Write the C-alpha cells for this entry.
Amino acid sequence: MARLAIIAALLAVIVLLFRSFLRSDPYAAPSTEMVQDPNCGTFVPKPEAVFRKVGDRDCYFCSQKCADEYQSRNAHNSAS
Ligand SMILES: [Zn+2]
C-alpha cells in the first residue's frame, strides 16, 4: 500500500517536471522570428513589428514613431 503511494507521488513529480520543462522549452516557439529595428536597435517579434518599406528595403520597427523617424531621416539622406 505504501509502495503505491510512492509510485503515485513519483508520477505526480514526473508530470510536474515534464510540464515545467515544456513551458520553459526555448524551442517551443520557433515560429516567433525576431527582427531588429534599424532606428533604435531594439529586437521585436516579427508579428508585432511595424513594417515599412524604406527605399527598396523591407524594414521592421518597434513602433510607428521609429518607423516615421527612420523613414524621414532616410528620405532626407537620399534626397540631399
Ligand atoms: Zn524603435
